Structures are given as C-alpha cells and as structure tokens.
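Allow me, if you will, to draw on your knowledge of protein folds for a short while. Thank you for your consideration; the sequence and its tokens are set out here:
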Amino acid sequence: MKTPAITTRAISATSAAPTTRIGQPPLSQRKIIGLAVLLLLACAVPFLVGNYRVFQLTMALAYSIALLGLNMLTGFNGQISLGHGAFFAIGAYTAAILMDKANFPYWATIPLAGLVCLVAGFLFGLPALRLEGLYLALATFALGVVMPQILKHKSLEHLTGGAMGIVIIKPDAPQWLPLPLSQDQWLYFFTLAWVIVLFFAAWNLLRGRIGRALVAIRDQPIAAQAMGVNTAMYKSLTFGVSAFYTGIAGALAAIGVQFASPDSFNVFLSLTLVVGVVVGGLASISGALYGALFIQFIPNVADDISKAAPWAIYGVFLIGFMYLMPGGVAGAIRYLRQRFFRS
C-alpha cells in the first residue's frame, strides 16, 4: 500500500519548517563556546548590580521557565492556552503551603510543585482534547479566571490563607558555599540552576522524535495520525509537561517574592505569559528568555517614561516589537545571524 501524498507532503513540510529547528545535530563548537560565555556572564551579574536588580533578574528567570513550558504547548504543539496563570498559581501555593504548614525545606517544594501541576495539567488536557483553536483558548481562559476565586474559597482558607495569602520566609544561603551570598544572590543562583536543567531537558526533548511528533500534530494532525502518532496522548502529555514547567516557575517566584496571594495570579498573568511567548518567539527555546526579560522589565520602563499612562507606553512597546520583529526576538536574532555569516 502506497503512502498517501498528503502524508508525505506533511512530513516533508514539518521537517523543513524554519521556525521549529527540530531534529538538528549536536551543538557546534561555536555555539558551545557562546553558551559558556553567556553562563559566565549570568554568574557574574549578581555581583555587579544591587539586590533589587538581582531580585528582578531572579523573577525573569522564573518567568522564562513558565514561558518555555507554554511555548512547548503553543509554539511546538499548537494548543492555545490563556489560563497558564492557574498552573503558575498552583505551583506557587503548593510551595507556600508545604513551607508554611508542613515545614518543608524550600528546595524540596520545587519538584513537588511541578509534579502537582503535571497531574493537574494532564487531567485538564484529557477533556480539552475535544476542543481546538479558540474553543480551547476559551476553556483555558475560564480556568485562569476561576483560579483566584477557588483560592479564596472558605473551604480552602485554612490552607491558602484566603484573600490574605501566605507569607514565606526567604531562605538564607547555605553555609558551605565558598563565597558569602546575600539571600537575593542565593535565590538567583538557585533559580539559574533550575533554568539550566529544565532548558537542557526541553532542548533534548524537542530536538528528537518527540519534538517532530509535536510539530507534526501542530501542522498536519490528520497526516500525523495516519503515520501512527498517538495525537491524543501526545497532546495530553504536552499539556502536563507544560504545566509542570509552569508550576516549578510559580514555586520559584513565590519563594523569591516571599508571598502568595490569589490576586497575584489573576487572568492578567495568563495573558502576560502569552505576550512573553509571542514577543520572545514561538517555537523557540531561547525565546523564553527574551520574552521573560520583556514582561519583567518593559512595564518598569514604561512606568519610568510616563507615570500617568504606563500601559499606553507598554502598548506602544508591544506594537513596536510585533511590527519590527514579527517572528519574535529569537526570530530576529536568527535572521541577523544568518545574514551576518552569509555576508
């Protein structure tokens, strides 16, 4: 029996997609050197700026993990989510409750928060299999809207603290470190370690067979199913893994802020994460870092420019980014790099 022409064309188009960069060979020596230099700069930054800037960079690193998880779902798999702020809240409250009520060490709450969100995301992804496009977006949007109300409910008030939230004690740096670090510097390096591990795991996952299957489901779901890809299982697992990343980001952010409140995880957070994914670059691993820097620092820049209408300035920045870099920051950097080496 011959392979249908549509299947052959779909698989060819998927492998040749310029924005996904799936199934590539190992990193070249030039890229390894570039990553090593970038890592050295990241390690040097906390010693060059004040504690408040270190705190902001820590939050940007936490956001980058959430954006990477959302990008795996939306950019690579094509499922639109407008409610990932709910998983961010679940991860934050899991860490806060374990630290406040059960006296868990802060480092042990991070993987547990990710596992809780993994289960929650997988279970939510099962009924969401019947929905696509805008219908899925609205379902996830409803999840983001309802989550703050759930956290304030009287039946959970003894755990979540209701509208008052939970206050967390910021951890001190371990005594065995060779250099004395402040609390903010230690949390920065702690978050950076999670970023390195999770980004490497995502890169390794997306560059292989699983990544090609996700992109095939996104571009040609019928052709992918005809080739034997279990689309239902891949979609549910992708939702779960995406929630896993977002939950870890929420736990890290809650520890950094020292506070978890229902009003901090409203639907605006979910929309902000979507903005970060698009600005950074869809179907791009490095785009998560660029998008995180945008959503962390651009609102502050807009507020410095105009105290009267900061969100108007923010909108101008957003329109400018989309107009000048329609493929996101990662796409623009990729284009400039190709032009530079070609010339």
In short: The chain has 15 helices and two strands. Residues 1-21 have pLDDT under 50 and may be disordered.
